[in-house]
Amino acid sequence: MNDPMTPEQVRAEVTAEFVAWLVKKAREHRVKGPQYAKQADVIVRLADKVQRGAVRPNNLLSLPPQGGPEDIPALRAELDQLRKDLESYEVLNPQQCPAGKHADWLVDSEHTHTCPWCELEARPSRTKVLREAAELGRELSRQGYSAQEIAKRLDRMADEAGAATP
After folding, report:
1. Is residue 73 in a domain?
2. Is the Cβ–Cβ distance between 92 and 108 less than 8 Å?
3. How is residue 109 annotated by DSSP?
4. What pLDDT, in 10s, does the model give residues 52-90?
5. What is the largest CA-CA distance in the chain?
6. CA–CA dist 129, 35 (Å, integer)
7. pLDDT for 129-166, tens place per residue?
8. Cα separation of 71 and 84, whole Å?
9. Which of 66, 75, 98, 133 shows a CA-CA span of 20 to 30 A to 127?
10. CA distances in angstroms from 57 to 8, 14, 43, 162, listed in the order given
């Protein structure tokens, strides 16, 4: 009959298997090429430390907690506090471009808004508007209107166009 293994024997066997696996991985990295040499060196150093016993479970006590089951109540309390802190902020609702061409954005109401970028694209460019105004000015000048009359007419047209856009 086999005698049951002691915890020390189990640990020694697991450590030996782990070190052998690390050495195997280091060799695999070296075969991949020189760009993996540093990674292979780190793996070999880790295998050496594990084999010498330089990595011990008590060394982990100085590390910050890793979030085990015992931390769940504290994490829930922290989450609840964060939610409570955020309650005073206004909720913003996501909006998407109906054409799917532009980035999403947030608005402070639940109503659907037109895409601001689509709206800008739909407006005529400044250059186009200036060219149309210049052409209109030339046409009115040919018809005998004075510069002052042309300016008044363009201002009136601009006011009408501004009133027509939302």
Report:
1. no
2. yes
3. S
4. 888 766 655 555 556 666 778 888 899 899 888 888 777
5. 121
6. 59
7. 778 888 888 888 888 888 888 888 888 877 776 665 55
8. 20
9. 98
10. 14, 14, 19, 74
What string of DSSP letters covers 142-162?
Answer: HTT--HHHHHHHHHHHHHHHH
Round to whole Å and give the CA distance between 153 and 131: 16
Per-residue HEC secondary structure of 30-66 comes to HHHCHHHHHHHHHHHHHHHHHHHCCCCHHHHHHCCCC
Which domain, by its residues, includes 97?
89-118
Q: Does residue 156 belong to any structural domain of this protein?
A: yes
Residues 95 and 105 sit within 8 Å (Cβ to Cβ)? yes
Q: Which residue matches tokens 């201002």?
A: 155
